[in-house]
Amino acid sequence: MRKDKVWKQVLALVLSAALVVGNGTSVFAATGDPAADKELVGSTQTVTSPADGLAFGADGTMSTDKKSYEEGGIGFTNDGVEIVDAPIITDEDGQPATGETVTGDDGGHGKVFKFPNPDPQKNEKTGESWITTAGEALKDYDFSQGFTLSCDIYPDQQSTDWNYIFGIGTFGEVKNAFVGTIGFSAGFDSELKKDTVGTSWMGFAAGDAADPNNPNWIHENKGNYNWNFFKEPVNAHKWYHLDFIYSLEGLTIAINGVPIVAYQDTNGYMADVFKALKDGQLRLGKGVVTSNEGYVGLMDNIELKTVSSEHEHVPGEGEAVIVTEATCTTAGVKRLPACTICSQVPMEIIPALGHNYGGLVAATEATCSKTGMKEHYKCARCNGYGQMVSADDGTSKIEEVSRPTLVIDKIPHTYTTATTKATASANGVIKSVCGVCQHTETEVIYMASNITLAGTSFAHTGKEIRPAVTVKDSKGAVIAASNYTVGYSNNINPGTATATITFKGDKYAGSVRKSFTIAEAANLTLNKSKVTLYTGKASKTAAIKATVKGASKTVTWKTSNAKVAKVDKNGKITAVKAGKATITATANGISKKVTVTVKNPTITIKKGKKAVKKIDVKRKKSVKLTVSVNPKNSGIKVGKLTKKQKKIATVTFKKGKLTIKGKKKGTVKVKITSGKGTKTLTVKVK
Asked: What is the reported pLDDT for 24?
C-alpha cells in the first residue's frame, strides 16, 4: 500500500440541527488524531490490547487458499473476496489525475479487498463474504462507551436494494434481523424499503427488529440525506473514506471527513446495546443475514476502535468552534477541543435562542380579493409568528404559531348574473359581476351550430317517421336534450318531412328546421313464376313483365343455366335445350324468381289412325303417312336421303303428308325433327 498519499482529513463532526439535546449534553464522536491517522493508513497493525483496536488493509497476510485472514488474533473466513490492485482514478479527460502515476490511484491505495458481484448462475449472494470465525470474536473489546469503525470504499454501481458495509452483533436467520444479542449494521441503502429492518445507518436495540415494539432509536429520527447516493452512477467508482462513530449519546457518520448525518439517542438505548456487543462478531461486506445482500466494490484501511471511558482535555488548549449556530427554535452545536487520550471531539449543545417578538401587529380584514390576518406578533430575528394566549391562571403569554393559523380566508363574492342566450348562429354569454369588488367572470355559451338527423331518407311504412336528433355546439360538445324539444310534420306519407328543433331553458333560444325524405317502400312483382318452353318454333320464348316500386326502376335479370334457357335485359326468356333453369329478377335489393322448364316438341307419325315407327312398301308402290307435332306450328323437318337410299325409295313431305315410294328391295331410315325433338321412321321396301 502506497504511503505518499494518505487520508489527511480530520473528521469535523456536525450534529444535525434537527436533533436537539437539552441541558447542554455533549455528544462524543471518535475521529482519531490527524498524526496518528497518517501513520495508520497504509500500514498493518496487530492488536496488542483491546484499547488499541483493530486496523488492517489488503497488504496484510492472507492464506494461500484465499479462504481465511487473521489480524490481531481475530480470524475471518472469506467466501469470495479477492485481493486486487486498486483502480487508477482519472480526470474527466481520461488521463490519470494530477500528480498520479499509472501504478496506483489518488486515494493512496495499492492492494485492496474486492467484494464482487454475485454470479446468479451459481446462485451466489453478495452477502456470502467476510465474517469473523468465532461467535465471540470481539469478547476482549470494551464497547461500554462506544466504538468507531472506519474504512475506505470504492463502491460499484449496481442494482441491489441492500449495500451493507459492516455489522457488529450476534446474528441469526430469523425474519432478516439480528436475534439473540442485539447489534448494529451500517451501509448505504439504494432506497428506503423499511424502517425496522435493514435501514441504512440502522441501530438495533433489544428485541427482534421485526417487532413493531422494538425501540429502534435511529428510524424514529431520520436525517435528510440522499439514500441513493452510492447507487447513482456519477457517485460510483470513486474512493470514499467512511467514519461510523457510535457513542452513548448517539451516532455520527461522515464521508470524506464531512458529516452526513447524526442521530441522538434521546431514549438511552445505546448503553444497553453496548453491553452486548462484546459477545458478537464483526461482519464486513456481508448482509445482516445471508439472505440479505452485501457490499459490492473495493474496501481498504479497515479500523475498529473502542471509546475510552474517560476523556482528558488540556485546559485552555484549543478553542471551542461553533459548528451550527443556534436559532430561535433550534439548538446549535459547539465543538470543544479533542480528548488527548482517544482524540474524541466533544460536542456541546447551544440552547435555542427563543423568539424576539416586537410590537402587536393589528389585524387586517379579509375582502373578496385578498385574505386578512389576525392580530399577531412577529419575531425580529427569524420572522416567525406569535399569538397571545391566556392561561388558566389568568396570565398571558406569546406562543409561536404558524402563519396559516393567522390567515383569514377571503369572503365570498356577491355576484349578479346576466345571461345572453346562444342560438344556432350566435354565441351566448353568462356574465357575473361582484357587487362588492366588481370582479367580473364570464362564461361563453357556444352556438348550437351543428344539428344532425339520424338519417335524411327513409322508406315509407305507413307510420310516423321520427329520426333521432343530435345537437352539438360549435366546439363539438353535445348539447343535452333537456335544452330543446323536437316536433315532426308531414312525416307519414311519401314526400318531404320536417323536424323542428326548438330551444328552451336558461342557455339557448330560437328554433331550427331540418328536412328529410320519405320514399315509397320498394317492391318487385313478376307476372309469372313458372314457364314451360319448347325448343321448336312454337312456344320457344316467353316475356316476363316486372312491376317495380322504389327509388330505382332498373331490373336486372339472371339465369341459373344459360345452356337450358337464356334471358335478356328486358326479361325475355329463350329456350335453348331441354332441362330446367331459374331466372332471377332484382330491383332495389328485392329479388323474384321464375322457374323455367324447357321441353322438346313431340312428333307423331300415323298410317291412317295408327301411329307407326316403321312401315313396309312394295316396289313401284307408294304409302302415304300423316306427320304431326305438339305443340303445333313447332315446325317439321324431314331429313334428306343419301344417293344410295334414293335407289331404294323416295320420300316426299308436303303440308303434313309424308309419301314414300318403293323402288327396289332394301331398308331406309327417315329422320324427322322439330326443334331439338327427333323421330326416326324405318322403311322396308319389298
From this structure: 27
Query: What gap in Å lies between CA 561 and CA 542, rounded to an integer?
Result: 16
Identity of the residue numbered 147: F
Give the three-class secondary structure for 378. Answer: strand
Phi-psi region of 64 (alpha: psi -120 to 50; beta: other; left: phi over 0): alpha
Residue 123: per-residue pLDDT = 67
104: left (phi over 0), alpha (psi -120 to 50) or beta: beta
Which run of H or E residues covers position 38?
helix 34-40
> Cα dihedral sign for 28, 29, 30, 35?
negative
CB atoms within 10 A of CB 322: 11
**Residues near 588 by Cβ (< 8 Å), separated by ≥ 6?**
522, 524, 548, 549, 550, 551, 552
Residues 385, 373: contact at Cβ < 8 Å? no
Residue 120's CB is within 10 A of a number of other CB atoms, namely: 8
> What is the model's pLDDT at position 93?
45
Instruction: Give Cα separations from 164 to 128, 381, 497, 608 (angstroms).
Output: 12, 44, 84, 131
The pLDDT value recorded for residue 642 is: 92
Contact 387, 406 (CB under 8 A): yes
User: Which stretches in the chain have pLDDT values below 70?
Assistant: 1-52, 60-67, 72, 79, 89-108, 120, 122-129, 157-164, 170-232, 234-235, 249-254, 257-270, 272-273, 275-279, 287-293, 308-319, 338-348
DSSP string, 409-473: PPPPP-EEEEEE-B-SSS-EEEEEEETTT--EEEEEE----EEEES-SEEE--SS-----EEEE-
pLDDT value for 278: 65
pTM: 0.41
Beta-carbon contacts of residue 17 (< 8 Å; ≥ 6 apart): 324, 327, 330, 331, 332, 333
Distance CA 70, CA 73 (A): 6
451 within 8 A of 469, measured Cβ to Cβ = yes
What is each CA distance from 318 to 321, 474, 513, in whole angstroms? 9, 82, 99
